[in-house]
Specification:
The complex is a heterodimer of chains A (about 375) and B (about 210).
Chain A: H1 13-31, E1 35-36, E2 42-44, H2 46-49, E3 62-64, E4 70-73, H3 77-88, E5 94-102, E6 110-119, H4 123-140, E7 146-152, H5 153-160, H6 167-178, H7 182-192, H8 195-205, E8 208-209, H9 211-214, H10 217-220, H11 225-243, E9 248-251, E10 264-270, E11 276-282, E12 296-302, H12 303-307, E13 317-322, H13 328-335, E14 341-346, E15 357-360
Parallel strand pairs in A: 1-5, 7-9, 13-14, 13-15
Antiparallel strand pairs in A: 2-4, 3-4, 5-6, 6-12, 7-10, 8-9, 10-11, 11-12
Helix pairs in contact in A: 1-4, 4-11, 6-7, 7-8
Chain B: E1 4-8, H1 11-22, H2 28-31, E2 38-40, E3 45-49, H3 51-59, E4 65-69, H4 70-76, E5 81-85, E6 91-98, E7 108-112, H5 115-124, E8 129-133, H6 140-143, E9 149-154, H7 158-162, E10 165-174, E11 176-180, H8 184-187, H9 189-201
Parallel strand pairs in B: 1-3, 1-4, 7-8, 7-9
Antiparallel strand pairs in B: 2-3, 4-11, 5-11, 6-9, 6-10
Classes of the chains: A alpha/beta (about 375), B alpha/beta (about 210).
Chain lengths: ~375, ~210
Amino acid sequence: MFLPDGSQDEIGLPLNNKAKATELFRKVATERGFKAISTPVVEYAKTFTNTHVGMKLHSLLKWFNKEGEIEVLRADWTTAVARAISNQKSKQTKWFYEGSVFRNDREGIESKQAGIEIIRTEPFLGEAESVLTAVAYLKELEISNYLIELGHTGIFEELTNSLKLDSETEERLLDAMHDKRRDIVYEIAIDYGSIQQAEQLTELIDAYGSVDQLKKYRSIWKDNKRLTRILNHLIELANVIESNGGEVLLDLGRVKNLPYYCGVMFKGYLKENGESCFSGGRYDKLYEQFDEKVSAVGLAFDIDVLATHINNNERKESICIVASKATHIQAEQLRSNYPNANVDIQYEIKDSDAYDTIIHVNENTN
Amino acid sequence: MKPIIALTKGRLEKQFIKFLQSLNYEVEPIINKGRKLRVETDTFQFIFAKGPDVTTYVEHGIADLGIVGGDIIAEFQPDVFNLFPLPFGHCRMAVATEDGKVWPNQKKKIASKYTGITKEYFRNKGESVDIIKLEGSVELAPILGLADGIVDIVETGTTLKENGLVVQEEFFSFSARCIANRSSLKIKRDVLTPIIESFQKQEEYV
């Protein structure tokens, strides 16, 4: 029997590492006052494809139900949790989840995530708690070589407001900014605005680096109150992260890749190989579909990525107790003599190299 | 560690070497690489691959930067930073048919290597077509009756002409482009920025 592309069986260490990463995430989240929430694996497609969320139907794993409605496998936790929370009317503000999401448009159909959602909370508090939870979790995983990127949707909005773009052109410009494609950014900006605006937007493509490298934008944007406020906000948040041992990179040219982002955006990179290990941000707009005006922020960790970076040094002694049907009860009782070892009971040794110690039990053994 | 550049083998490779030479980078190890697919110079590590594979190596972070045709990026749409055009590798995407051939009064059959671009082009025109995927020598398809026309890149137009084909419409123009891995560009900023800046400064070269 074969497996479809993107699906895979897992055995041994990778599986243990994922379990450990999830277990440590639950520990960190619980200790910080988050409450667990889970949503079903099967949802209606429109939960993810409505205009507030904006996911593409072709990227979802879908089928028709008996009534002809399109159902999908959970494609995004944040959207599903927002739906669940808005139904619950709970006073709880901090939630955590862990489980799989399923997408057609990325390598590996199923990916394991764990994440947090903070709603109805003072915006800076929610954002600081999100990134500090990331710092605490990565510390718990003993991962120290990482970078947290901060961006803000308001910068692009502010710099393109006066261009009066139609929605199709705005989409093209967003795509070009997302791809840091300077020729197209310049081309669109000059068609709809001045040379100065085109140069300003093109320069934004290169506006990524450390906080110190980007402090110059304080003077560049000194006459624009909104941009100054956003920049100060990002620098304050960066300070919170750096004061707690994290390294920060600002990308002032980052744009949202889903319509519901509206403010700060986070992304975590492992410096060793550049893999993205978490992402998230502010998405108050997501709750507008439920006629709610709430503050909402959160992030999701990529457990599949983090699990490959766990140092699994906790190797226990491996013992095999060789027994028989007649001595099985004795062998089971003997197991308690080795509380710090992995103890296996066999009637016959097939692979002696698999064990550190082999103990034979016969009927005379006490 | 030296930055890794994935470079498209063939014509783009030769043009890129001239481009590097004009920027005073060392190129001798690339010129004399023989059949090696990995070569190191004073400044870079190079890997050599076909265009679509260049985008794959960059997308997966094996290479930090890539030099690849804009046609390949438009067709395969890799998840990379598509930074800027380079001053070589210019070509146009065109629809071509046999000289004097009239389009049939039914759904057209179009042969192409670029099935994604072809689909998008005809969809934007509001026209349904049957697309036949070919891997090369696309000009043969209308001549041998496999398709009514082709969509392919045109540089000088000589190949089309020699095979009795004429351009009906040109709809995109491309050049070689510099692409970057989404993480590398940020994490290796200090190493990559001077290289990228030097590539951008060179508008023209001999």
